[in-house]
Specification:
By secondary structure, the protein is α/β, with parallel strands linked by helices. The protein is built from 13 helices and nine strands. The two termini are about 35 Å apart. Bound molecules: S-adenosylmethionine and FE2/S2 (inorganic) cluster.
Length: about 325
């Protein structure tokens, strides 16, 4: 749908009539991507990060956090169990942990690919060559949020990082042939409604296959501990407009939404979202990958989460997708 910037700003600001927007996004979602909700098994495999983003609980300078890193076997084993549980996509996410070298990641990707799954990587900014080699090894999708298109804000929040570099990473990933996932946080300090409208237009312009939109939630062990944070409603309006702008892409109901509201993901699924990413990380690691406080399901098991979210999806008359759930039916490397 063509929506002008002014119209997007109006919709973002219109709290009173937001239910109409949610209904419209839900209808567009139904028409274009149907009632299936695609589940992705999320493995948070290392909370070690070389970056120091002001908002993020696993930032380098958070010395109160106990750090962990799965070894290759653990990571592959976690993915195998997720595949056995029925997940057709494995998302591997971590801080920017360069211990996972180009070669090491390649070995891991090749092993996990044997489980007949689509692989999404979300490991941050890396050189073109890394992205290329990982794609050739079998990685199908890559998720890296632009966070905000307000460059001044970005540079204040992500010290020593470059917005331009992040943008170029996205361009490289697209050129290599990945299904491209990006997204933003909503409710960052000094983020304007106008800049959120620009973010949405940016995601459309670069042609994302997946857009993750979540509220910013302040973490006590970061410099932004006293910030106000985003609201579920604004994040949901942003997500719903994303659905109107790009009717057939994948849009996750983000975990951060559920951290703000016990039915956050269901509400998101009813206002434009068609993907959920249950955590399949095991044991203590679930707690230690704490990007923001109030993270859900930290004491649950992967199987419990899969069953729980499956039941929630069915309770609203939707069904769990059995396929790979690529954008516009795209199949992963090697799928028949
Ligand atoms: N290192 C990879 C990267 O930079 O893309 C992946 C991990 S990073 C922690 C994943 C995402 O978490 C970020 O893109 C950011 O949007 C989100 N995030 C971090 N801190 C957050 C917070 N306090 N509230 C909400 N989301 C947050
Ligand atoms: Fe983890 Fe419901 S999704 S308990």
């Amino acid at each position: 749908m063509e929506l002008k910037r002014a119209e997007i700003i109006r919709l973002l600001s219109d709290e009173q009539n937001q239910d109409d927007l949610f209904r419209q996004a839900d209808e567009v979602r139904r028409q274009y991507v149907g009632d299936e909700v695609h589940l992705r098994g999320l493995i948070e495999f290392s909370n070690i990060c070389r970056n120091n983003c002001m908002y993020c609980g696993i930032r380098r300078d958070n010395s109160q956090l106990k750090r962990y890193r799965m070894n290759e076997e653990e990571l592959i084993d976690t993915a195998r169990k997720a595949a056995e549980m029925g997940f057709k996509t494995i998302v591997m996410q971590s801080g920017e942990d360069v211990w996972f070298s180009r070669e090491r990641m390649c070995r891991i990707i090749e092993q996990i690919k044997k489980f007949d799954v689509a692989i999404t990587l979300s490991v941050g900014e890396r050189p073109y060559e890394d992205y290329k080699v990982w794609f050739d090894a079998g990685a199908d999708r890559y998720l890296i949020r632009i966070e905000t298109t307000d460059k001044d804000l970005y540079h204040r929040l992500d010290p020593n990082m470059s917005w331009q570099n992040r943008h170029e990473c996205l361009m490289a990933l697209k050129e290599i042939g990945y299904e491209l996932g990006s997204g933003i946080m909503v409710g960052l300090p000094e983020q304007s409604i106008e800049s959120i409208a620009d973010d949405l237009l940016y995601l459309k312009e670069i042609g994302v296959d997946m857009a993750g939109i979540g509220p910013f939630i302040p973490h006590a062990q970061t410099p932004l501990k006293d910030a106000k944070g985003g609201t579920l409603d604004l994040a949901r309006r942003t997500m719903a407009i994303m659905r109107l702008l790009m009717p057939d892409i994948n849009i996750p109901a983000t975990t951060a939404m559920e951290s703000l509201h016990p039915r956050g993901r269901i509400l998101a699924l009813q206002s434009g979202a068609n993907v959920v990413m249950p955590n399949v990380t095991e044991g203590e690691y679930r707690k230690l990958y704490e990007l923001y406080p109030g993270k859900i399901c930290v004491d649950d098991t992967p199987l419990h989460c899969k069953t729980c979210i499956g039941a929630k999806i069915m309770s609203i008359g939707r069904k769990v997708g059995m396929g790979y759930g690529g954008h516009a039916g795209r199949l992963p490397h090697g799928a028949k």
